[in-house]
Structures are given as structure tokens and as C-alpha cells.
Design a protein that fits this description.
Layout: H1 2-11, H2 15-45, H3 53-75, H4 78-81, H5 86-99, H6 106-125, H7 135-142, H8 145-169, H9 174-203, H10 210-240, H11 243-265, H12 274-313
Helix pairs in contact: 2-3, 2-5, 2-10, 5-6, 5-11, 6-11, 6-12, 8-9, 9-10, 9-11, 11-12
Length: 314
Amino acid sequence: MAFDSELNAVSSLPVAGIVIAVISSFINGSTFVLQKKGILRSRDRGGSYLGDAVWWSGTLAMIVGQIGNFLAYNVAPAVIVTPLGALGVLFGAVLASWILDEHLNILGKLGCVLCCCGSVVLIIHAPKAETVTSSQELEERISDPVFVIYALLVVLMLVVLIVWMAPAHGTSNIMVYVAICSLLGSFTVPSSKGLGLAAQDVFGEGPSSSRALALFLGLLGTLAVSIFIQFYFINKALESFSSNVFEAVYYVTFTSTVILASALLFKEWTALTLTDSLAMLCGLTTVCVGVVLLRISQEASLTWKQKGLREKTD
């Protein structure tokens, strides 16, 4: 009986969604490495990376990976798909050491593993989303005062980061670019989910309302602007920082921001239990330790490189 129950549990797993998610994770793990390689190649030639084939291959990989994620989320639960994204971080670190010769020391490797493990704990114990089945319900959630205040605060922080922080400290502090790209996740993921609901009312059978069309266009515009800004600052970060360090920290902060935005938008925090709260606190602590280790590893690597350059000069 126990064997039969285990067999039924295995057979009930969404194999197709898991396979798509794993493949997408590996593809996503290669995007930053390939784009970084293209940036370095174009820098050596003295041209723009927009004309580099390797950079465009990384951009294409990013598009394919995101399409794969979208398909995976539609055939498997998010609680299974999202933790598999950690595989991309680990694969990216291995690929960066091979293609870019970016070798993490023992602290960097430990920090990368801790970031992935902590993020997986956060995702597993995050409150589950309530079902929203129509654009009317989504519109009500978006206009909720709590989410409106959160969205305004995010916009305010983005303005401060983009206008003041990025020009002054972007090339010296990796968290500036990471914060910009991660905060934009508060808009990209909910907009992606909402577009499907709005599209049913706009393009489905029956007459479409003007409010549904306005919601669809608003979400589409928000998604397009968010993706464009993210894309720009991801490449700005890759021009100045290690691809594997950026990918690990970005995965952590992006995941945490999306969980927070979804919890507020879909009122998931009301179903949060004490056990899940403690588990998420432990996961967040693990992530913070991992990020600190990655920062120490990056600073140590920069110090070592500067020392090597001085010795060559002497």
C-alpha cells in the first residue's frame, strides 16, 4: 500500500512542467554569461556590444528562457517551478568559470549555495496565491489601497535609484543595479499574470468592455516599460560586475520582491501561518548571509586583481 501511494504521488507530478522548468533554468543561467562575454569582446574591439553575435545569443537565450518559464507556470504549480530557477544560478556560476574565467573562491561558492537554498525555502513557505478568475477581480486587487501605497513606494524608490543613485554609485555598488531590476519585478510578474485574465475579456467570446481593454493596455504598457528598463540596467551591471555574483544576488532579490508584491496584490499574507513565517525568516537570514559572503568574495577578488596589476606594472 505504501509503495502504491508513493507510485501514485510520483505519477501525479507534472513531469512536462518540471522538464520545461529545468531546461528554462539552464537556458536562463547562460544568458548573463553570454551577454557578459559579448560585452567584453566588444570592449576589446572598441565597439558597441549591440553588434556582437555572442551578446545577441545571450539576449535570445533570455527570451527563450522566459517563454519557457511562462509555459512551465501554466502546466505546473509555481511552488515546483520557481525553486528550480536556482539551478540556473548554479549553472551560470559553472559556465562563467569556463567561458569568462570568473572563478569563485570558497566563500563565493558557499554564498551562491546559501542564496539558492534560502530562496528555495522562501518560495516553498510563501503563502499560496488566491485564485483570481476575471479582470474585474484583478482590477479590484490593483486598486486596493495597500497595494497602491506599495506601488507608489516602489516607483519612488526606483526614481531615486535611477536618477540619483545609479549615476553616482552604480558602477561601484552592485546592489544599486540589483535593486532597480528587482523592484521592477513588482510590476513585471503581476502584469504578466494579469495580461492573461484581461486578454480573455478583450479577445474572448462576447463583447469586450472598455474597462477590460484599458486594463489590458495598461498592463501591457507597464510590462513593456519594466522589461526595457530591466534589460538596460542588467547590461549596465554586467559591464561592471561579475556575471555569477550578479546573477546570484539578482535571483535572490528578484524572488523576494515578487513574493512580496504577490502577497500584497493577492492578499496572500492573510493566510500566512506562524510556521511559514518562521521558515521564511530563516530563509531570509540564509539569503542575507549568502549575499554578504558573495560581496566579501567579490571584494577579495577585486583586491587580488588590483594587486596583480600593480605587480605587473612594477
